[in-house]
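=== RUN LOG ===
request id: a7f3
mode: sequence -> structure
chains: 1
length: 161
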Amino acid sequence: MSIEKAREYLSKFGVENRIVELPVSSATVELAAKALGREPGMIAKTISFYDKDGGVILIVAAGDTKIDNKRFKERFGLKAKMLTHEDAEKLIGHAVGGICPFGVNEGVRVFLDESLKRFETVFPACGSSNSEIELTIEELEKYAAPEDWIDVCKGWENSQN
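=== RESULT ===
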């Protein structure tokens, strides 16, 4: 089960016991925000895209954002094309609804979007459609081990936490 991969990965940092399994689905930003009683921006959604040569790019971004296709293309040199549901679990190691940057398959590239930095804590999924963990931005950066911070999302610039 995918949550076990995330739990095993986060155990390296001693935070696996902070994972919360909710009694309801948190598979979408809206469901997660409702289940946690938080604003949608605080949900750290992980969006998956095809990279060149069949690889995967994961972008962890604030839940109230959308990918800016122009900025994505400028940053990665290709058009933003999201993974299909069928490819997600196979290529990432987590199924849609529980995709997260923890315990992913070898070669998956992880990036954090600047839209997250306006919050003290955020809530990424942990491999299942009903799991979350509350992390500070510094913890997220440490545990997700991103290649870089990027700015490829829109719709949040005028939002305040």
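=== NOTES ===
The mean pLDDT is 95.
The first strand starts at residue 20 and ends at 21.
=== END ===
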